[in-house]
């Protein structure tokens, strides 16, 4: 139990450090995206983290290191090297759930390519794809990875209208030769001074995290 507690404290400390770096930095939204690649030969670098859990189990992400590079015109290469943890409560109240050994380490790495397919014009929105491959670098037996390559296939739309910037996405996730979900997501709007996100985008992202947590739990059973 002491080992599990120490692991939980270490994970929380690393996440707080990552959050501090993320607060200082500026750039694209952490939870949502857009169809605009990084400028040619420019790059972005982020450090981030987060925690999601219930009384049954806490799952952490972070520190995670994200790098985006404008490799060629209208094409961005993307990589995330994440660490994370799974910390079941092992509380008999929640049996049979929430049982197992706590673990912290490298989780599944993300590789991706963002392509600006159509540039925005007066009457046509910017349209781009951001295909991402989730690589099985995390330990399947420890619950830090799902043990298979799986994919995210969003198509992003963005249109300027006066002082407003509107974004949306059609997205699908593909895992073990089947489509997990397909959504049309109104992502948010901006008037140049603030950014707002719609609940549908947040719901999709929560479902994505929930699916991943379930696959990790299945790996430990």
Which descriptors would you attach to this protein?
11-stranded antiparallel sheet; single chain; alpha+beta; elongated
What is this entry, summarized?
This protein is an alpha+beta fold and 221 residues long. Helix content is 20%, strand content 47%.
Describe this structure in words.
20% of the residues lie in helices and 47% in strands. It has 221 residues and is of the alpha+beta class. The protein has one domain (2-220). Strands 1, 2, 3, 4, 5, 6, 7, 8, 9, 10 and 11 form an eleven-stranded antiparallel sheet that branches. A hairpin with a 2-residue loop joins strand 9 and strand 10. The protein is elongated and about 60 Å long. The protein starts with a helix and ends with a helix. Mean pLDDT is 76; it is low at 15-30, 179-183 and 192-210.
Helix content: 10-25%
Rg from C-alpha positions?
Answer: 19 Å
Number of domains: 1
Note the gap between the termini.
20 Å
Strand coverage percent: over 45%
Q: Could you say which overall geometry the principal axes of the C-alpha atoms support?
A: elongated
Let me know the largest β-sheet: 11 strands, antiparallel
Query: Please, what is the average pLDDT?
Result: 76
Q: Please mark out the parts with pLDDT under 50 across 5 or more consecutive residues, or reply none.
A: 15-30, 179-183, 192-210
Q: Could you tell me the number of beta strands?
A: 11
Tally of helical runs:
2
């Amino acid at each position: 139990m002491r080992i599990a507690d120490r692991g939980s404290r270490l994970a929380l400390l690393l996440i707080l450090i990552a959050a501090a770096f993320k607060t200082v930095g500026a750039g694209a939204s952490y939870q949502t995206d857009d169809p605009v690649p990084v400028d040619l030969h420019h790059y972005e670098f982020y450090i981030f983290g987060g925690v999601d859990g219930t009384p049954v189990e806490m799952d952490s992400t972070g520190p995670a290191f994200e790098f985006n590079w404008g490799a060629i015109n209208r094409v961005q290469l993307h990589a995330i090297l994440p660490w994370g943890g799974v910390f079941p409560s092992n509380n008999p109240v929640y049996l049979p759930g929430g049982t197992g050994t706590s673990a912290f380490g490298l989780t599944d790495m993300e590789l991706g390519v963002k392509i600006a397919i159509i540039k925005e014009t007066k009457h046509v929105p910017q349209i781009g794809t951001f295909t991402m491959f989730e690589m099985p670098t995390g330990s399947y037996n420890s619950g830090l990875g799902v043990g298979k390559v799986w994919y995210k296939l969003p198509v992003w739309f963005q249109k300027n209208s006066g002082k407003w910037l509107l974004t949306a996405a059609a997205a699908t996730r593909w895992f073990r030769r089947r489509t997990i979900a397909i959504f049309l997501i109104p992502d948010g709007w901006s008037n140049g001074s603030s950014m707002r996100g719609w609940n549908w985008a947040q719901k999709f992202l929560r479902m994505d995290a929930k699916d991943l947590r379930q696959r990790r739990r299945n790996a430990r059973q």
